[in-house]
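Build the 3D complex.
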Amino acid sequence: MAASSRTVSGSLLHGRLAAARSFAIRNMVTIMFLVISALGYKLSGMTPFLFLMDIVARISRNAFLVLALIIPVMAGMGLNFSIVLGAMAAQAVVIFVTHWGFGGLPGVLLSMVLVTPLAAVLGLLTGNLFNRAKGQEMIAGLILGFFAQGIYELIFLQLVGGIIPMDNPAIVMSSGVGVRTTIDLTNGLKYGLDWPGQYWGNDLLLRPTLPWVIIGMAAALAVGIIIYQLRTDRRRRMSTAQLVITGAALAWACWWSVQQIQSRSQINWIRVPLLTWLVIAAACAGVHFFSKTKLGQDMRTVGQDRHVAAVAGIDVDRVRIIAIILSMVMAAWGHIIFLQNIGTFSTYGSHEQVGLYSAAALLIGGATVARATIGHGILGTVLFHTLFIVAPAAGRQLFGDAQIGEYFRVFVAYGIIGVTLAMHAWKQVLQRRSAAQ
Amino acid sequence: MRVKSAFKDMDIARLIIAAFFVFLCIAAVALRLNISELISSSLTQMGMWGVLVLAMLPAIVSGTGPNFGVSLGIVCGLLGGLTALELAYRMEGVVAFPPGALFLVAILFSLPFALLVGIGYGWLLNRVKGSEMMIATYVGFSIVSIMKLAWVFLPFKNPEMAWPIGRGVRVQIALANRGLAQILNNFLAFRIGDVVVPTGLLLAVALAAFLMWLFLRSQTGMAMATAGSNPRFAEASGIVVDHQRIIGTVLSTVLGAVGILVYSQSYGFLQLYEAPMFMPFVAVAAILIGGASVKKATITHVIIGTVLFLGIQVVAVPVANAFTADWSSMGEISRKIIQNGVILYALTQAGGE
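Done.
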């Protein structure tokens, strides 16, 4: 508030400085992580090749899951920690699809189709639960995740092979009851979406190399910006300075990529799972257009103030349930993408950290409990997983122990959520107090 | 009379759990399990967790809700324990601490940490009214995970605590070397038939519960309860609600610190790193099973909850095992379902904002 009033009265330069300062304050978390990630990268002593290969894989693996968190934030329900249930549903379906012997792209698509009703039902139940615990959705979601873990273990450790018949030595434990603790998806769903052609013997289908993807993305972005500039009214257009900076960044990215292609460097070995990235792009577009629909607008209204929304004739409880169903289904799909990329998973553990890591990634991208955008999700995924890649290596370089880097990154995940939650709750208390006065 | 009113608080969820416990006990008798061993280990488990469950009481009474962040207190207790062991090592040849004195020293060392941390934590909780449970959970998670780094870097020299190679303290630190293991359990312990009664342990829990009972009847205790149950009224009658909430949080943190030391001596090891992470949820679930809500709790809830929840945990495993060998993980599964089911139930009963 003080900054903006000074902008009006002060000189142009002063205004710019104040604007830069308020930008820095608003994006403090993201900027801090940019610095930490850059420092960590320097300290880790990793080659660009190793780093880029890992980050490409991790973006493909996790971005969709992070996007699943955005819709409940819109509806004012905070970070939806119950997406762990969606991940469990995904694993349940993947276990059965693997048992039935499906693989490749058809197997992944079949899993996605099969998991949808299951996740929707879980979302419906979770949404109803959240409506009975309004204001405590996040803790309820977290505890629900632990509770569901118990049910999941009951089903897959005790019932499968016994009450639920399944005789497949690759999946069921040697005792005949209970699913093995790790499931190998090799020759099954592994890379089903990432290497779609593999199933038909064409390994390189839809797997362009990284430099070409960067050039393509830069071109697409440039076209997008030009269209945006032409179609929006003058006031909301990007400023000249912004255009110059963006243009320079895109040009540099293209120049770097062309260099890599010409010098036939290692970077050309990195192949991007284009189909997965297109699916992620489709999810971004889906969330974006959903927020423009009537239902999306209702959701925003509910998110801002439930009472106002109710007075305006919106069925608040129904809108909240829909938000959770959408989030849950997206989480289930996202976890299938995760599993097909990683190729082998721990039956009783792979889903546990989904809520934690996705929430931390979203927040590091600059989101808050009350506001999250697609941009926050994507940027956060990149930054958080950069930290994930470099922290152990940096820990080994600094202290001779990778474990220390590991402890650090887990602390960061919990700490960032704790701090963001506390700041948000504090702001709410202050708002309530000023409203009361 | 008091017991009767406590049972009145027990709604359907608690009755189901109580019925389940009775069923387990009947099953245990019917299956001819070793009943005296089950009773002994139930008594020990109840004593181990008693103080930690009690730590929930001042938090709920002062209005901050069940203390999902009691891991802060737990960490302070562990820090006190490590410091005491380090002191014993550094003073070797100068003073030889008898185990009992060393246990008291551990508690004494943990108190300043718990006091300071409790004040800061209470200050934070005052700023996030309405979201205490979620914030507390993540503050707990954050502290436990940053303490993992601390356990690596703190300058402890005692070789009993250090890894033979590498840096930092061990994941588990044996207390037997200094005679601290089961020091309370064995105090005045006696047998009835084959049942071992850990008298000292139960006495310690009873003493803590009695002191808490006294405190809640003191003027400060009454003020704290008023601040918790009706903050507007309390404010109007001149009670500073925020101060009372801080007192409640400090008490809870201190009890968490003492509680983990009581727990650890019985377990025989100080458990560091990942161990404190999920302990708060057990304590929260126990007091809720006893009939407390996120807004209201009494000593009776603590006692009933501790007996029921830990009783179930002890009896469930061998009963499940007796059915078939494949049901071996049933104890852990039933714990997860009951523990988190009860917390969820209590959250929905709070009725939101």
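Chain B touches chain A through 45 residues (CB under 8 Å).
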